[in-house]
Design brief:
By secondary structure, the chain is mostly beta strands. The chain has two domains: 6-129 and 165-259 and 381-451, Immunoglobulin-like (Sandwich); 283-372, no CATH class. It contains five helices and 32 strands. It is globular and about 70 Å long.
């Protein structure tokens, strides 16, 4: 089992219990990432656009991969993304246990009169396509969801893996507004996620937590962010398009906002968007029920797919219209009753149970989904995405208009073909667990996109 270094356990635990939040600015952090041998990605003009597939499994089709003949003339940039050593002013580091995890990546780009395209590959030991799947804890007789951060016991031993989808994020420095972006990528936008350890005094369990300091460092700094979560990409053919700003510089605040969202002028600011122009994306497959025969409440799945052999342990909105059954009751032994009267007894075998630090046999096709995957609309749906698993890594293709309909400077504008600063963040499997680099993700800073004219 994985252990956290003792000295870090003591420092982060005491600081997390005593202070809770850390001062999070670019001046108080140390970023240790070796520079790449090459950082320039050249986008070449193409007369033939790459072919994309949308709504894969809702339509029964899957992406077969990029056209090798079409992409052969696009220069390949080889980089290595690495989980950095990021340290806050307290000396605490939320990335302990993950620092140095790395994966080789290749980047290519093309553009035509209307769109820009990216082709990205990277190595990963396995494909993680689930997000927050449900599992049953046989000791507590309660249902729970896998999380983005692992949990540890008082000895620093991992008791539950982080269980979440592989992801990739591209960030573009809008109008070169973020001063530290070139050298620090997303960490120049105060994304240190400096961590603490929270102790449950009843169980002795220790949970790794982070201070979500995700905002830029000045009112005029803004980033365009594309986030491809694979449980969404493989269902909708989309990546989430959002932006990041100063958010009033609130300690522990989040400057992440849906495209078309605007601040209301309060301090700290509150953001709102027009619901008719932005879709919600994925929503939690979760509800709270009263345990039968008691007054206690328990969080359980909302929908369970009957005879589920669904490929990637996710639910689509259409599933709730017939293919999935609603959970209508839970008893004190964790047995779920579904509409129609059928039941799921998680005590009958280990399929749904926590086993060691994982779930059952870690077969993602048998997990109860944690999300219902909706497509993005409006400004959040600007980025089309395709992805495929090769058996040893991911291949992803992205597409976005050179210039979107955005009038709020929340999207980067490629139409001038001027150089653009960008960075890469990648969440991938490492160290033999389901996903040992989620929020503690690998990055490659200092990249520049240039256009062959």
């Amino acid at each position: 089992m994985k252990k956290i270094k003792t000295k870090y356990m003591v420092v982060t635990l005491m600081f997390g219990l005593t202070f809770g939040l850390y001062n999070c600015t670019r001046h108080d952090q140390t970023l240790n990432v070796a520079p790449a041998s090459g950082t320039l990605l050249t986008s070449v003009k193409t007369a033939t656009p790459p072919s994309f597939v949308s709504g894969y499994y809702s339509g029964g089709s899957a992406w077969g991969g990029p056209s090798a003949s079409l992409w052969k003339n696009a220069p390949v940039l080889n980089i290595t993304a690495t989980v950095p050593d990021v340290e806050g002013s307290s000396g605490a580091n939320g990335f302990n246990g993950f620092i140095g995890n790395s994966t080789p990546m290749t980047l290519q780009s093309m553009y035509d009169a209307n769109y820009i395209y990216f082709l990205i590959t990277w190595k990963a030991a396995q494909a993680n396509r689930a997000s927050s799947p449900w599992f049953f804890n046989p000791a507590t007789k309660l249902w729970a969801q896998g999380g983005a951060a692992p949990t540890y016991n008082v000895d620093g031993e991992e008791t539950m893996q982080s269980i979440c989808s592989d992801e990739i994020v591209m960030l573009f420095n809008i109008n070169n507004s973020c001063a530290d972006f070139t050298s620090q990528s997303c960490y120049g936008a105060c994304h240190t996620n400096v961590g603490s350890m929270v102790l449950d005094t009843l169980t002795g369990a220790i949970t790794s937590t982070t201070t979500n300091c995700m905002h830029t460092n000045a009112v005029n700094e803004k980033l365009d962010c594309w986030r491809a979560r694979f449980y969404e990409v493989e269902q909708t053919g989309q990546a989430l398009d959002y932006y990041q700003d100063y958010d009033g510089g609130v300690l522990g605040g989040s400057g992440i906002h849906a495209d078309q969202s605007v601040p209301n002028g309060s301090s700290p600011p509150s953001y709102s968007s027009n619901a008719s122009t932005n879709g919600a994306g994925s929503v939690s497959n979760k509800q709270t029920l009263t345990i039968t025969g008691t007054s206690k409440h328990e969080s359980v799945p909302l929908w369970v797919k009957a005879n589920d052999n669904y490929p990637y342990a996710q639910l689509l909105p259409s599933d709730t219209l017939g293919a999935a059954l609603k959970v209508i009751a839970v008893d004190s032994n964790g047995v779920l009753t579904l509409q129609g009267g059928s039941t799921i007894n998680p005590n009958n075998g280990t399929t749904y149970q926590q086993v060691g630090t994982g779930i059952g046999n870690n077969d993602q096709t048998t997990w109860i989904p944690g999300k219902i995957v909706f497509p993005y609309t409006g400004g959040e749906g600007d980025v089309t995405a395709n992805a495929m698993w090769s058996g040893s890594g991911w291949t992803m293709m992205l597409k976005r208009a050179l210039k979107t309909t955005d009038v709020l400077e929340q999207d980067v504008d490629f139409s001038s073909l001027a150089n653009q600063q960008f960075g890469i963040g990648v969440m991938f499997q490492a160290n033999g667990s389901i996903n040992a680099a989620d929020n503690e993700h690998a990055i490659m800073p200092g990249l520049t996109l240039t256009f062959q004219k």
